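Example record for the data management plan.
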Amino acid sequence: SSDLYSPSTGSSSFPTTFLLGTNILTLSSSIGSNSSATNSVSKFFVESFILLLLVGVLDRLAHMFDWYWAIGGYDSLLHFLGGALVATFFCWFFFFSGVFSPENRSFKQFLLISILGVVFVAVLWEVYELWLGEAESQGLEYSFDTTLDFIMDTLGGIAACLYAYLKEIRHVQS
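Corresponding structural encoding:
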């Protein structure tokens, strides 16, 4: 709606339109909303928060008990879950938070937002590790490990993208 305040819905909105590629994106701030949509968004946010806690606990345990070095594949598991966490956040923020109201809510959009978010955070994370000196950029092992990390981050992001899109489909059908 073009009104800044709609008495019939009890909500106010301040839309600003951006051109994103060939899609139009509306940034809006809304007060008051559909109860069913709010419950769906809240549930998705809670599920994302639970995933955050899981990743945090598993990472803490790994550092306490040296699981990253003692258990083969543990690092890959955490990268998968981390990629899922990042993609879940980006999907929630872009599609479910109410900050953005994209007109195109296709699987392609969900996948694009998920992958871009995961790649952005994964690259920043690798730079952070290099800056801290936790990773040595010399040698074949670093290249292999970093490539595997990116692959697992991306696979986790795709899994979260599928989950978020299925939530979208369920929401639209209800």
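Summary line stored alongside the record: The radius of gyration is 19 Å.
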